[in-house]
Amino acid sequence: MVRRVLPIFGFLGAFGWVYIYAKSPSFPTPDKLLILAVFIGMVFGQAWELTKRLVPFIALMAVYDLFRGFADYLNNNVNYMFMPAVDRLMFAGVLPTLELQKYLWNGQVQWYDFLMYLMYMMHYVIVIVLAIVIWKIREQHYWRYVMTFVAMSFAGFLTFLAFPAAPPWMSSDMGLIEPVRRISSDVWFALGVQDFPSMYNQISPNAVAAVPSLHAAYATLVCLFIFQLFKGKWRYFTLIYPASIYFGTVYFAEHYVFDEIVGALLGVAAFKASFPMWRFVRKRVRRVQALQLRRRLAYVFINANDE
């Protein structure tokens, strides 16, 4: 009876989630995506298995976001001028954000603004969807994938803590660089995006967490895992995602090019480090499992002798 009812309940729940989201669009945060994933899992009879794998991942990401939210309270020595100075050094004295907006922004949101912002909003969606795909198709790599993203996120937090950095729009608002527009806000309002109640709404955002760009780091790491774990020419289409992030976040005045470079390098470093990290973790887990097995066998042996 339960097996028959759960798929129906899951379908209705997923439909209700999509309906609410379509009626009141909001940023797709992991807690919201977990609810949808569980409903879809019910449809296919795998809700519990899906929950067991995603809840630890999303819980750790929530802890990271909580830490990121108060990092700026621990260090208020915000860097405003280092990043634009590096960008000017790389681009013959001009700011890429300013130049891109001169050519592409005409005061109204265009189709390419929507497209790049859609990619920007996929920050958590693509990471979680790929996690589910890896679980179903390349299960032996699932926990390495999760561990790598979590470790990289906390490495980003430590950088935010040591080097608080303002994005271009903030420096512009303070009159420290040439005027640039935060185009992402225009797209946000044009889409009618708002935040219906979510755990993530309760976590204070950190406006001075621009270095490294974790959007760039996540996009880079996603592509590296795709190219490692899957075959076929379709993989090359996934390069559109990081390219859009690198370009779009600079154009939107959310990041400098310097932020993107540091974020991409962080993604590459995390991917390279994932192999020795995973070997170390797996070895430790096997030792603990072997120790537990020996204790159980000793317990059984002692009880057998007593009898």
Q: What do you see in this structure?
A:
With 307 residues, this protein is an all-alpha fold. It has one domain (2-306). The protein is 72% helix and 0% strand. It has 13 helices and no strands. Helix 2 packs antiparallel against helix 3 (47-74) and helix 11 (214-229) runs antiparallel to helix 12 (240-251). The longest helix is centred in the C-terminal third of the chain and has 50 residues, at 257-306. The protein is globular, with a radius of gyration of 23 Å.
- The averaged pLDDT comes out at 80
Radius of gyration from the CA trace? Answer: 23 Å
Structural class: mainly alpha
Proportion of residues in β-strands:
under 5%
Outline type? globular
As for the number of domains, it is 1
Low-confidence stretches: 196-204
Number of strands: 0
Number of helix segments? 13
Helix percentage:
over 70%
- Please trace the helix and strand order, writing H or E for each element: HHHHHHHHHHHHH
Profile the largest sheet: none
End-to-end separation = 45 Å
